Amino acid sequence: KNQVEQSPQSLIILEGKNCTLQCNYTVSPFSNLRWYKQDTGRGPVSLTIMTFSENTKSNGRYTATLDADTKQSSLHITASQLSDSASYICVVSAIYSNTGKLIFGQGTTLQVKP
Amino acid sequence: DSGVTQTPKHLITATGQRVTLRCSPRSGDLSVYWYQQSLDQGLQFLIQYYNGEERAKGNILERFSAQQFPDLHSELNLSSLELGDSALYFCASSTPGLYNEQFFGPGTRLTVL
Fold this sequence. Notes:
The complex is a heterodimer of chains A (about 110) and B (about 110). With about 110 residues, chain A is mainly β. Chain A has strands spanning about 5, 10-15, 20-25, 30-40, 45-50, 55-60, 60-65, 70-75, 85-95, 100-105, 110-114. In chain A, strands 2, 4, 5, 9, 10 and 11 form a six-stranded mixed β-sheet that branches. Chain A is globular, with a radius of gyration of 14 Å. The model of chain B has no long low-confidence stretch (mean pLDDT about 95).
């Protein structure tokens, strides 16, 4: 069964600190993995997208890694800011012709405190 | 701003009623996807349209239906509404490519009383 599991479910850190969010998946055949940031009540916004051959990708203070052998990904946030408080969703795309079907994780809720 | 627009932003209605949610995709995108997000739940894929034709179905109830028009905008119709249908409904659009990246709209918050 295609699944995406994220940990931790929630996280509280102090402003300025770093944190790492984890994502494990069992999606096959794998196409790509993406991390989205979703502010409360808003639509998800893409942070990074990685294909099978990409091990790491950065977007400002966000750095995602992918280990396709172990089917694990992580999202590292550096020098956190209050505006980083959001839900971070790991999404894996399976190859199903042109449907672009996505399998969503449940998300990690990050709260950054001053 | 993703370029995807959704109307209305908020909708409050009663059980048993029918509502229509509207989505306009990014310019040039042929695919439209609908998602449901209940309170404290993850995004659930409902249905995808590509250039006017249904392409994939997810966990969409029989009371729900969607269509994509020739101008590529899409509508999601929800009927015989129940309290449990209260949720955020997101539309996303994409164009086929290496990543088939989906861009999400701001969502419509539906409250069924």
